[in-house]
Write a structure and sequence with these properties.
The structure is a single chain. With 198 residues, the chain is α+β, with helices and mostly antiparallel strands. 45% of the residues lie in helices and 18% in strands. The chain has a three-stranded antiparallel sheet, sandwiched between helices. It has a three-stranded mixed sheet with strand order 4-5-6. Helix 5 packs antiparallel against helix 7, helix 7 crosses helix 8 and helix 7 packs across helix 9. The longest helix has 13 residues. It is elongated and about 65 Å long.
Length: 198
């Protein structure tokens, strides 16, 4: 198998996006990437990040390759958990406070939410993007907590739809929701919504 075929295989296994370190870990010299760039076979989309064939790119996966600490949240995670019927035209992403997002070369519209490092990990999980890539996002309960915490800044339709669907749905986990609510100091607010919506 040629180096080009090996690089193509690595790219395909990673939703057509790959990093220099993935290639060098397989014993392929970095210079091969330069050759493929010059031949127009691959495209550079960020520092040390490349794509094979733009038309097949998964924007969710590509974003998380560029923003390694980015966790999909708010409207974006609500969409993935079927708590919203709106496909996000602006990605919502939470990062730890102090994480420098200004240096990221992102072409997609993104709304960043900055959170204290001790609250950042709560509810992180994985799901599949519409194109089948593994992406990181907050679970249903964390999504609801975020929407309740920032209810004055969140789109009202998104807020009411997500809460209604969550509390009327079968996949809710009230024990986990209240545990998260305690961490975010919003248990009273959550109890009020539960009384009305359950």
């Amino acid at each position: 198998m040629t180096d080009y075929e090996r690089i193509t295989q690595i790219a395909i296994q990673n939703n057509n996006v790959f990093k220099t370190k993935m290639i060098t870990a397989e014993g392929i010299r970095k210079e091969k990437i330069k050759d493929l760039l010059e031949a127009g076979i691959i495209e550079r989309i960020g520092y040390g990040i490349y794509v094979l064939g733009r038309e097949d790119i998964d924007e969710y996966y590509e974003f998380q390759q560029k923003c390694s600490k980015g966790v999909f949240s708010y409207g974006t995670s609500a969409y993935f958990w079927n708590l919203s019927d709106r496909v996000p035209n602006v990605l919502s992403c939470t990062v730890p406070r102090g994480y420098n997002t200004s240096r990221l070369n992102i072409n997609t519209k993104v709304r960043y939410h900055y959170i204290l490092k001790n609250l950042y990990d709560i509810g992180i999980t994985e799901t599949k993007s519409p194109q089948g890539a593994s992406i990181i996002l907050y679970d249903r309960e964390r999504t609801i907590c975020d929407l309740v915490r920032d209810r004055k800044k969140v789109d009202m339709q998104l807020f009411s739809t997500a809460l209604n669907l969550y509390f009327k749905g079968r996949e809710k986990n009230i024990r986990k929701l209240m545990k998260y609510g305690k961490e975010f100091h919003i248990t009273e607010e959550l109890e009020k919504y539960m009384e009305v919506l359950q």
